[in-house]
Amino acid sequence: MALEFLAALARWGVGAGGLNTKLRTAGGPGGTGGKAERRDDDCTADPDNDPVMDLPKTLPASWYRSAPLYALERRAVFLKAWYLLGPVTRFLPDEPVRYEIAQVRLCASRGAGGLRDVSVVDEDTGLPLRSYITSSGLVFSTISGDAPSFVEFFPDLEPLLARVDFTRLPHRRSIRYEGKFNWKTMVDGYQECLHCQYTHPSFSVNYPPTFYSVSNHCNFSQHIADPAKPDDGLFLYFFPNCTLNVYGGGMSSFRVCPTTEPGVTRMEFDYYHVADGAEFESYFAFVRQVAQEDFELCEKAQANLEQGVYVEGVLNPDKETGVAFYQQQVLKLVVAQHEADKQRAGLMREAGPMPVRDGAGRHALCVQKATA
């Protein structure tokens, strides 16, 4: 694990990557079979005069298929984040809602105090988890005590959310299923829309990718389908793995939940709409079509990553800023966690065996193996 990680840092430095890049350079639609990648043995490139060297680079493909790397991501990223569970309308009295994020099982329930009386507990320990309800009615939660406060994690989010009264959107349906792709593969696709024109033709009719842009903030991104109409729909990505999409009279949100297998991710979707019956079903059919198109694209992209042909790529500096933003955040946190783990391991080695009491109350030696 340590050698793989350090080799990746030495080779890639700071990186990012999108579905469009992975499919293009790894044999997907319009692919070049990996010809766009830079290799260490490429002696023809002049790093001082090569404009490609200045472009943001993708994360290593190995990060999409490494179990030890995910274990590091879990500590560095997932245990230190806040997660969108849904609007307060998702939670009904005496009907607890269960989640599992990064192998932490949590349960949210509504009390007798009304819509905003929602609490979250760790199902395995029974201990309360910190949660936060925005003024507009969205419920966020942590999964561990390692996360900062909500305001520190999302310092400028609430003014943007205030545009929508989420308490007026009834919950209509939720679905869950697994996909054969890494969690980052799905986020890569959400954070750019270069693939939208050929992958989402129905979506592109209403939201032409020609005008599509992404505005990045502290731990979230706002997707703007038309800069001339910033109030037409609200599309948000919450780092690391949650989204919120308000358009067409309804709202959808999904969580990209990593499993212990790097190439398998569980998708969790929640759908809300002001209307029920035929109007909701029409909305649901449309958003499900877009979701299914993304699902198929992600499985194809992951299959390319698993082949070992694609190593790295570069991003469009104008059209893939959302991908660069979130992946650089992943990289920064993983590097910091790796350094902290190394320092902790060094201190443990210096301290030597730790005295503890055995079952009879006698002192015993607990030798803890430190892994770099």
UniProtKB/TrEMBL annotation:
What EC number(s) does this enzyme carry? 1.14.15.7
Catalysed reaction(s) here are: choline + 2 reduced [2Fe-2S]-[ferredoxin] + O2 + 2 H(+) = betaine aldehyde hydrate + 2 oxidized [2Fe-2S]-[ferredoxin] + H2O
Segments for region (Disordered): 23-50
Outline the extent of the Aromatic-ring-hydroxylating dioxygenase alpha subunit C-terminal domain.
167-333
EC top class named in words: oxidoreductase
Pathway, per record: Amine and polyamine biosynthesis; betaine biosynthesis via choline pathway; betaine aldehyde from choline (monooxygenase route): step 1/1
Provide a Gene Ontology MF annotation, just one. 2 iron, 2 sulfur cluster binding
**Residues making up the signal peptide according to the UniProt record:** none
Instruction: State the superkingdom.
Output: Eukaryota
User: Which CDD domains does this one have?
Assistant: RHO_alpha_C
Question: GO:BP terms for this protein?
Answer: glycine betaine biosynthetic process from choline
InterPro entries from the entry?
Answer: Rieske_2Fe-2S_sf (IPR036922), Ring_hydroxy_dOase_asu_C_dom (IPR015879), Rng_hydr_dOase-A (IPR001663)
Stated family: Belongs to the choline monooxygenase family.
Entry function = Catalyzes the first step of the osmoprotectant glycine betaine synthesis.
* This protein's name: Choline monooxygenase, chloroplastic
Q: Which organism is it from?
A: Trichodelitschia bisporula
